[in-house]
């Protein structure tokens, strides 16, 4: 399975314009991720974790260097193509859940499937499966404001996972959760990783998350400082 | 997908109910204001029409050329057959013969010597025949200060101010000294049955209002009248129609050079009223325009803010893989729905309020205690065809354009930046 790399980054540089000059957020990043990895970008605040995750998620573009996700070069995708990459292959989980507040749990999880144009029968089955994974089948009619933080993040996990994407990008998913909820979510994600072979890439500086990771990629000032695989 | 967006639209009150209310209010105000301005400006035209100008006026050609001098020697003869002609040719119009005249009013004492005297302008109109609408047209009953309206031959009204100056009370006799149609002296005795106040200085100074048959008799104008005024049965002056009627009427006699041939003049073709009519048109347009532009800016802004507020939601939808162009389009559709809903309810409400104001008006006579007026002291709105679509300019166009502009931000902003806004 070694040659089935789903993310391939070579010599990535990302600069942001700042005042008159520019600020280098990422420099010389080289990284390869294979199918089914459970990896995390670890580093202090400002080290470039979110920036890197955004570029992999085709929400941002590299200044220079090569970033290939599922064989497609991010810098060469037009808006339509990058939307399609996200729609079909990527799931996102955010620190602040980012659920649609006026829609029910069911509808929030259903949304990615609507974009894929699936029939309502297919959608229903997949949504119920996803809610089953995160243990929220009894809350399908609730709306996000009626849920606890932990429940919200589980909805977000279900939403990211419902279409069974190749890659889930999770930016500080536990930052707003207490220890019990954090472990809960992480266990769920670990299980999904094992059963569905979905690749997970986290951005975090939370010890609880780090302990679950099978691969730890340390970022420091926009560079990869260390990249270690945990053998278990 | 459409269902999903609809649910969102309906459930998110700040996205549906609030904007619809804002649009509705804006459109209601625009429609109402427009109807109000048209009504208000129109009222001034109507007052002049009722007293002196008519919506159209028929006179002999030379009378028309010397209108200011009230030249009754140039009056129309055989008025009754001309009236028949007019009534059959223009059935949507009420035609009323009038005689305007000038003269001296003399009030005698018991011995028949002059007690007091003053110059007067006279208005002869049909006050006595039961089908006549002239009394209502001039609002005489409400303008009555003392005495009563004329009920039989030789009874007249004087303006209150004039009667005070002459020191004459209802029931007392007065003598009109004027000239006949043929230029000889005319003397006729009347009884003053009552007095009226008209609220117009020019009319209140020295006016005598008499039945037209009495005036015809007094001035030796058997079956003659200086003018025949035409009033649209709709009750409102319509310049285009008036001009068209006048042209139609005059075209039949273009080859005739007879100076006694009757000609028709629209209100706007009579002296300074023409300037006023075009000024009215211009000002109602300007004022409505300014108001509509102001409302448009408000609604545009509302559309703009509505879009900006939702950048977070757009960020999520983008992350899920929705295309920017699709988000943009759905945003526009939403604003279309909101704009249409708001414009329809707003137009309906605006028309309703305008209709109320057209039907009942706001009566200022209560505020202007005591001085009951001959002019309508009621401010009325007037609904015109423009009121049915004018609200859609601020309601629909401005809302959608505002949304379009705010939506451009979706394209302009880096996708990742939309996320920054979402994280905070
Ligand atoms: N759009 C931008 N414009 C300018 N500078 C930016 C922009 N986005 C990020 N940066 C800068 O790039 C650096 C890396 O930011 P990034 O958000 O990737 O850090 P991070 O590792 O995710 O930090 P945190 O743990 O606080 O989330 C920071 O110094 C940040 O200020
Ligand atoms: Mg970050």
Question: What does this protein structure show overall?
Answer:
The complex is a heterodimer of chains A (232) and B (424). Helices cover 35% and strands 30% of the residues of chain A. Chain A is built from 7 helices and 10 strands. Chain A has helices spanning 49-56, 79-89, 105-115, 120-134, 149-161, 179-196, 207-212, and strands at 5-18, 21-34, 38-42, 64-69, 72-73, 90-93, 167-171, 199-204, 215-220, 223-229. In chain A, 46% of the residues are buried. Chain B is an alpha+beta fold and 424 residues long. Chain B folds into 2 domains: 2-44 and 276-423, no CATH class; 56-236, no CATH class. Helix content of chain B is 50%, strand content 19%. Chain B is built from 15 helices and 12 strands. The complex binds adenosine-5'-triphosphate and magnesium ion (MG). Magnesium ion binds next to α1 of chain A.
Secondary-structure blueprint:
The complex is a heterodimer of chains A (232) and B (424).
Chain A: E1 5-18, E2 21-34, E3 38-42, H1 49-56, E4 64-69, E5 72-73, H2 79-89, E6 90-93, H3 105-115, H4 120-134, H5 149-161, E7 167-171, H6 179-196, E8 199-204, H7 207-212, E9 215-220, E10 223-229
Parallel strand pairs in A: 3-8, 3-9, 6-7, 7-8
Antiparallel strand pairs in A: 1-2, 1-4, 4-5, 9-10
Helix pairs in contact in A: 3-4, 3-5, 4-5, 5-6
Chain B: H1 2-11, H2 17-53, E1 56-60, H3 61-65, H4 79-89, E2 93-108, E3 114-125, H5 134-137, H6 140-143, E4 144-147, E5 155-159, H7 160-166, E6 173-179, E7 185-196, H8 201-205, E8 207-211, H9 212-218, E9 227-232, H10 239-251, E10 262-266, H11 273-308, H12 311-319, H13 324-359, E11 362-363, E12 378-379, H14 392-412, H15 415-423
Parallel strand pairs in B: 3-8, 5-7
Antiparallel strand pairs in B: 1-9, 1-10, 2-3, 2-6, 2-9, 4-7, 5-8, 6-7, 11-12
Helix pairs in contact in B: 2-11, 2-13, 2-14, 11-14, 12-15, 13-14
The complex binds adenosine-5'-triphosphate and magnesium ion.
């Amino acid at each position: 399975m070694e040659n089935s790399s789903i993310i391939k980054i070579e010599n990535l540089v990302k600069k942001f314009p700042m005042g008159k000059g520019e600020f280098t957020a990422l420099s010389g990043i080289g990284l390869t991720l294979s199918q089914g990895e459970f990896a995390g970008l670890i580093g202090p605040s400002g080290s470039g974790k979110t920036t890197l995750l955004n570029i992999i998620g085709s929400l941002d573009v590299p200044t220079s260097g090569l970033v290939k996700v599922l064989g497609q070069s991010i810098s060469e995708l037009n808006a339509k193509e990058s939307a399609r990459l996200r729609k079909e292959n990527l799931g996102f989980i955010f620190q602040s859940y980012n659920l649609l507040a006026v829609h029910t749990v069911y509808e929030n999880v259903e949304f990615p499937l609507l974009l894929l144009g699936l029939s309502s029968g297919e959608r229903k089955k997949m949504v119920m499966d996803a809610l089953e994974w995160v243990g929220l089948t009894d809350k399908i009619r609730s709306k996000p404001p009626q849920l606890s933080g932990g429940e919200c993040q589980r909805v977000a996990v279900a939403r990211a996972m419902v279409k069974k994407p190749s890659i889930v990008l999770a930016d500080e998913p536990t930052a707003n959760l207490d220890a019990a909820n954090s472990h809960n979510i992480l266990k769920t994600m670990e299980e999904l990783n094992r059963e569905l072979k979905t690749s997970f890439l986290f951005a975090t500086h939370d010890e609880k998350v780090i302990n679950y990771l099978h691969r730890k990629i340390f970022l420091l000032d926009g560079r990869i400082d260390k990249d270690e695989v945990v053998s278990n | 997908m459409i269902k999903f967006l609809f649910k969102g639209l309906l459930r998110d009150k700040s996205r549906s109910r609030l904007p619809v209310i804002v649009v509705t209010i804006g459109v209601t105000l625009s429609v109402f204001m427009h109807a109000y301005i048209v009504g208000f400006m129109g009222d001034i035209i109507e007052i002049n029409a009722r007293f002196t100008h008519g919506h159209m006026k028929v006179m002999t050609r030379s009378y028309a050329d010397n209108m200011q001098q009230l030249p009754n020697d140039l009056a129309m003869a055989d008025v009754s057959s001309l009236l028949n002609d007019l009534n059959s040719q223009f059935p949507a119009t009420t035609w009323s013969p009038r005689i305007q005249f000038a003269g001296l009013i003399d009030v005698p004492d018991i011995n028949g010597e002059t007690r007091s005297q003053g110059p007067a302008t006279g208005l002869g109109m049909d006050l006595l025949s039961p089908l006549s609408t002239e009394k209502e047209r001039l609002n005489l009953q409400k303008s009555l200060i003392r005495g009563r309206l004329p009920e039989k031959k030789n009874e007249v009204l004087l303006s209150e101010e004039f009667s005070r100056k002459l020191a004459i009370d209802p029931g007392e006799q007065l003598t009109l000294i004027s000239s006949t149609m043929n230029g000889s002296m005319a003397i006729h005795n009347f009884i003053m049955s009552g007095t009226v106040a008209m609220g117009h200085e020019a009319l209140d100074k020295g006016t005598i209002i008499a039945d037209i048959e009495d005036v015809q008799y007094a001035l030796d104008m058997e079956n003659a009248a200086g003018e025949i005024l035409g009033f649209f049965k709709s009750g409102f002056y319509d310049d285009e129609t008036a001009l068209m009627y006048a042209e139609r009427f005059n075209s039949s006699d273009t080859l005739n050079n007879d100076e006694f041939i009757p000609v028709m003049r629209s209100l706007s073709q009579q002296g300074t009223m023409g300037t006023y009519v075009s000024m009215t048109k211009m000002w109602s347009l300007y004022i409505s325009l300014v108001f509509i532009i102001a409302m448009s800016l408000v609604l545009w802004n509302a559309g703009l803010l509505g879009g900006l507020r939702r950048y977070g939601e757009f960020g999520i939808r983008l992350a899920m893989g929705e295309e920017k162009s699709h988000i943009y389009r759905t945003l526009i559709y939403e604003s279309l729905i909101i704009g249409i809903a708001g414009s329809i309810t707003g137009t309906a409400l605006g028309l309703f309020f305008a209709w109320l104001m057209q039907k009942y008006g706001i009566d200022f006579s209560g505020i202007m205690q005591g001085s009951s007026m001959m002019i309508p002291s009621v401010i009325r709105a007037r609904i015109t065809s423009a009121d049915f679509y004018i609200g859609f300019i601020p309601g629909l166009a401005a809302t959608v354009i505002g949304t379009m502009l705010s939506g451009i931000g979706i394209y302009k902003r880096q996708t990742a930046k939309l996320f920054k806004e979402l994280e905070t």
